[in-house]
Amino acid sequence: MDQTKDINIFKPYLKAKVSYKGGKTLNDIKALDKPIYKLSSNENLLGTSPKAIQAIIDHIGNLNSYPDRSATRLQAALSKFYENELKPEQFICGPSGSEVLDLIIRGFMGEGLNAVISNPAFLVYQMFSEKQGAEVIDVPLDPDNFDLNIDGMLDAINENTRLLFLTSPNNPTGSYIPEADMDRIVYGVPDHVIVVIDEVYFQFADASDYCLAKKYVKEGKNVIGVNSFSKAYGLAGLRLGYAYTTEKIAQYILQLYKPFLINMLGLEAAIAALSDTEFIKETVTLVQTEKMKIYKAFDEVGIHYWKTQGNFILTRPKLDPQVFEERMFNEGIMVRPVGNFGAPGCVRITIGTEEANEAMIEAIRKVVNS
Ligand SMILES: Cc1ncc(COP(=O)(O)O)c(C=O)c1O
């Protein structure tokens, strides 16, 4: 008897949708026979924290052993990094910021539930939430200055809302959420909503009213700060990230933590990187200095752009973004069209080394005048 004939074995919400499509990788570029500056993925063009590299070298001979079963030592290092204002148990570590976001989303999203986001935004909030069968309510940013529609976001919340995503500095816009706005949201949401504040570019923010999730977590609010070692620490290839929140929420999410989730080299590199203040200082100084030079050059060239709090700049060239991307590539510069992030007509450019930025500016001059 064929009883399964009419039974759909597939989860209806796991239907083929556009999955995350990253930019070209180093291997794609190596196959080309010309020098290319990769300014398309907001990586650190100075390289990797030297302390992290040393830690990897020191432990490379131990790969026959399992790593720590859980991230206890990294949690302790993070607590120290946050000047003991948060306890080790408040940290959730994982193999990348994206994976930590997925842990959070798996913990709180599901069929019948929803999350509030504001596009243009990092794609995974929506993608991962939908993969759990949840609905995503988009309350877009102001298209001109990328301010949040705070009243709209608060109004969009209903009894089935569990997560509200904020990103500061925001990818791809480079905008940030001033403390007064953050206060309005965090203190304005009902108790059944958790505010997820993605701050993976926090080291680059220099606005005087920039604020971290830490303020609210310390007050015991339903807030989760999300972070990554991919950006300022230059560890994108190793995949490391973490979140911090109240003990109650951390304990809940950590039920989803799998044993040995972070590999040995990752754990050791992350612990070492946290103490590498010198590398972070060098990285941040480079980005702050270079962004001023780039603004000036963009003003001269006449390409539209938005000031940034991140290590990247959003531009709106007069050309079609894909044509702009291709022409820039032909000049040896990789950039990222971000129409799929909800920013049609726009292209994101990472701030690189002085040499890379000069090459990028030169390429833009050629491309926009061709
Ligand atoms: C806003 C934002 N959040 C999170 C991430 C995730 O970083 P990763 O998964 O490399 O740790 C990124 C990466 O580009 C990002 O831009």
Q: Main beta sheet: strand number and arrangement?
A: 7 strands, mixed
Ends: how far apart?
Answer: 69 Å
Q: How many strands?
A: 13
**Distinct ligand kinds:** pyridoxal-5'-phosphate
Structural class: alpha/beta
Structure description:
- The protein has 370 residues and is of the alpha/beta class.
- The chain folds into 2 domains: 26-48 and 277-369, Aspartate Aminotransferase, domain 1 (Alpha-Beta Complex); 50-273, Aspartate Aminotransferase, domain 2.
- The protein is 36% helix and 14% strand.
- It is built from 13 helices and 13 strands.
- It has helices spanning 26-30, 50-59, 72-81, 97-108, 124-131, 150-156, 179-186, 214-218, 247-253, 264-273, 277-301, 321-330, 354-369; strands spanning 37-38, 91-94, 114-117, 135-138, 161-167, 194-198, 223-228, 241-244, 304-305, 312-316, 333-334, 336-337, 347-350.
- The strands form 3 sheets. A 7-stranded mixed beta sheet has the order 2-8-7-6-5-3-4, with helices on both faces. It has a 4-stranded antiparallel beta sheet with strand order 9-10-13-12, with helices on one face.
- Helix 2 (50-59) runs antiparallel to helix 10 (264-273).
- The longest helix is centred in the last third of the chain and has 25 residues, at 277-301.
- It is globular, with a radius of gyration of 21 Å.
- Residues 42, 96-98, 122, 167, 171, 198, 200, 228, 230, 236, 241 line the site of pyridoxal-5'-phosphate.
Attribute tags:
370 residues; alpha/beta; Aspartate Aminotransferase, domain 1; Aspartate Aminotransferase, domain 2; 2 domains; seven-stranded mixed sheet; globular; binds pyridoxal-5'-phosphate
